[in-house]
Input
Amino acid sequence: MTLRLGAWAALLFVTTSPVLAQPATMPPVLAQPEPTPPAISPLSLIDRAIADGRLGDAEEIIRRAPLEARDPELRLRQAELALAAGRMAESITGFGLLTDEPMVAARAQQGLGISRLRRSQLPEAAAALAKAVSLDPSLLRAQRALGIVADQQRDWKTAEASYAKALVLAPGDPVTLSNRGWSRMLRGLHGEAEADLAAAVAADPSLKVAAENLRLSRAMQGQYEEAFQGSTRESLAADLDMVGYAALTRGDLDVAEVYFRRAQILNPQFDKVATANIAWIETERSRLAKPEKQR
Output
C-alpha cells in the first residue's frame, strides 16, 4: 500500500540577515516526482480475491487477465479457484496437470493434496502433500493439511510435528492453532487444546470454528460457566446443546439434563436430539441406581 503524505504548508522565515545570492555554479533545486507505486499483477489480484472469498471477482480477473491461456501460473489459479468453490473433480484435474511444471510443481502438489483430502482420499492426499513439502518446505497450507491427514489417521506424533512446522512458518497463525487445538481435543488434551484455541480466537475473533471448539474444550474440563463466554443470543441454544453433550460425556447427568432442556426451550430444532439425550440420561440413572449385584 502506498502512503501519501499530506502537502506541507509553506513556512515563512523572517530574518534580518542579508540575503546572499546563490552561486551561479549551484544547480537549481528541482522538485522530485513521487515514486510510481509498483503495478499489482493480475495473479496477485486473483490470489487476494480467492483468499477473501470473492470467487466471482477472481473468475472475472482470470477471464480478463492479459496472460497466455496456457501460462502455468494462470492455470494454477484456475485450479485454486475450483478448490475454493468446492469443485473437487475440476481442481484435482487442474492441479494434476501441473505437477510436472517446474514453476508451479510444489504448489500444484499442495493443491492436489488438499483436494484429495477434501474427498477423504487420505493415502493419495498424504502422498501429494509429502511431495509438495519435499519440493518446497515453506508451503504453509501443505504442512497444515499434513496435520489434518495425520489426525484422521490417528497418527498423533505426525500431526503434532506437522502443526509445529506450520507454526514455525507462520508463528501465531490462527488457522494452524485452531487445527492443532482440535487435534489435541481428539486426544483428550483439553487443557492444551484450550490454550491453542484461545490463542486462535485472540488472533482472529472472526474464526467461528475456533470459538466453538474453545467453548467445547472448556466444557470438556467441567468449566461449564466459562464455556459460555462469547456466546450470543443466536448461538446460545447450540452452545447449551454442546455443553450438555460435554457434561453427558463427563458423566455429569444432572448438569447435562439442565442444558438439554434449556436448549429445547430456546430453539425447538434441538427438541428431537435433546429428547433422545434426556431419555438416555434417564436410562443411565436407572442403571446406576441398581445394586451392584444386579448390574
Summary: Residues 1-31 have pLDDT under 50 and may be disordered. The CA atoms of residues 86 and 118 lie 9 Å apart. The first helix runs from residue 42 to 51.
